[in-house]
Design a protein that fits this description.
- The protein is an alpha/beta fold.
- It has 3 domains: 5-227, Rossmann fold (3-Layer(aba) Sandwich), CATH 3.40.50.620; 259-330, no CATH class; 333-416, no CATH class.
- The protein is 43% helix and 17% strand.
- The strands form 4 sheets. The chain has a 6-stranded mixed beta sheet with strand order 3-2-1-4-6-5, with helices on both faces. Strands 7-8-11-10-9 form a 5-stranded antiparallel beta sheet. Strands 13-14-15 form a 3-stranded antiparallel beta sheet, with no helix packed on it.
- β10 (317-322) and β11 (325-330) form a beta hairpin.
- α1 (5-13) packs antiparallel against α3 (40-56), α2 crosses α3 and α6 (139-151) packs across α9.
- The longest helix is centred in the middle third of the chain and has 29 residues, at 226-254.
């Protein structure tokens, strides 16, 4: 790394900060969000970023904005969020507390909290105009993740661990501490007299991650430790990248976007199974917006059904056999209740623009709307796929269906097109 100025040289002398700067400087963000829970890892990240800003100055380090999510699940959570606010005030970093009140007591608590935290932070970042948010996941978190995924039978992608950079919810999420151990960060904080909060849930054996942490200590004598799992993840990332590049090349040759559907040509069936599964899983997420890939057994079953000439549904999408190939489209039922104002993003993918009249909203065309579009067959797309396309409604009256032969002066714009589908195969 090339350093310029006394301030930057001072920053680079600190080995932990050197690691953080090396991870973040290539992106060269003018402004950066940082998620701070109050625990040791995120507090260390906050102080490291603030130290970078103080030493390097605005020309070399980004402006910081911090955010804390209070899940309302522990009595001490509000006090911990207030402590983070005081720390940020002392560092001169603007701070916001976001509160989640969506837990209904059902399902996986940690997964629900994680999803809610992601949505809340993404919305906050969008409102602040932030391109990226940094998270405090460490090498220890990475090792625990790999062990948990191994227990679940994950393949190459899962065992590659958490990505250092990932685009989700329209936001770039950064993990600049993945190369650092939890103990290193706490030693760094202690040397500077900085305290942090300890979340009691980190010792609660009801949670899988806590079990994984304990298991690593037990397995260490066998050589199954954090260092070994990190090495495995690194090798799996190399394998994943090679497989993703092969799938990308195949998709560029065989895939095209047809009215928002992914249409795979007949040659798709002759691809190696890993490549077929990777492309199909990516298409399902690209269309349906799912946070995760579908389970392998379900994906194989849906593809087998489509290959046998029988339509299948999976992950809010339709898999339709077509001319020896495969069409993957949105499932009408999945968008039956989805609404948006004209010009706003509908179903995470479409924007409709047109002349009005007032009182219009964007909803799915549906079977009833399709019946009002006599020219829909001329578009060459299956009835079921067209039923899931966006249309303009005013109450119960169909104003326009620009993807089904009834434009009415309206246009439908796909937020991400064919090149995005192909390029994002590497990032999925």
């Amino acid at each position: 790394m090339t350093a310029e100025g006394d301030g930057c040289r001072a920053v680079i002398r600190d080995p932990l900060l050197r690691t953080v700067v090396a991870e973040l400087a290539p992106g060269r963000f003018d402004r950066l969000g940082v998620a701070v829970s109050g625990g040791g890892d995120s507090v260390a990240l906050l102080h490291l970023l603030a130290a970078w800003r103080a030493a390097a100055g605005p020309d070399l380090a980004p402006d910081l904005l911090a955010v804390t999510v209070d899940h309302g699940l522990r009595p001490d959570a509000a006090a911990e969020a207030a402590a983070v606010a005081r720390t940020c005030a002392g560092l001169g970093v603007p701070h916001r507390v976001l509160r989640w009140q969506g837990w209904d007591g059902r399902g996986n608590l940690q997964d629900a909290a994680r999803r809610a935290r992601q949505r809340l932070i993404a919305d906050w970042a969008a409102g602040q105009g932030l391109p990226a948010v940094a998270l405090g996941h460490t090498a220890d978190d990475q090792a625990e993740t790999v062990l948990l995924r191994l227990a679940r039978g994950s393949g190459v992608d899962g065992l590659a661990g958490m990505a250092a950079r990932r685009q989700v919810e329209g936001l770039l999420w950064l993990r600049p501490l993945l190369g650092l151990r939890r103990a290193e960060l706490r030693d760094w904080l202690r040397a500077r007299g900085v305290g942090w909060a300890e979340d009691p849930s980190n010792e609660d054996m009801r949670f899988d991650r806590v079990k994984a942490r304990r298991a690593l200590a037990v397995l260490a004598p066998l050589g199954i430790d954090a260092a070994g799992l990190l090495d495995t993840a690194a090798r799996m990332r190399m394998a994943r990248d090679a497989l993703a590049e092969a799938a990308q090349a195949a998709a560029r040759a065989l895939a095209r976007i047809d009215g928002g559907d992914v249409l795979l040509a007949a040659g798709y069936a002759g691809l190696p199974e890993e490549t077929r599964l990777r492309i199909a899983a990516h298409a399902l997420r690209w269309i349906g917006g799912g946070a995760y890939r579908p389970r392998l057994a379900a994906l194989r079953g849906a593809l087998a059904s489509a290959a046998a000439g029988k339509p299948a549904t999976l992950a809010g999408c339709l898999l339709l056999p077509e001319k020896g190939g495969l069409r993957i489209a949105r499932e009408p039922q999945a968008v039956a209740g989805t609404r948006a104002a004209p010009g706003a993003l509908w179903d995470g993918r479409w924007r409709l623009h047109g002349p009005g009249p007032e009182g219009c909203e964007v909803r799915a065309l549906g079977p009833a709307g399709l019946a009002l579009c006599p020219d829909w067959r001329g578009w060459g797309r299956p009835r079921a796929a067209l039923a899931a396309t966006p249309a303009v409604w005013r109450g119960g009256d169909l104003v326009a269906a620009p993807l089904a032969g009834r434009p009415g002066g309206w246009t439908a714009e796909l937020a991400c097109g064919e090149e995005d589908f192909v390029l994002s195969l590497i990032l999925d």
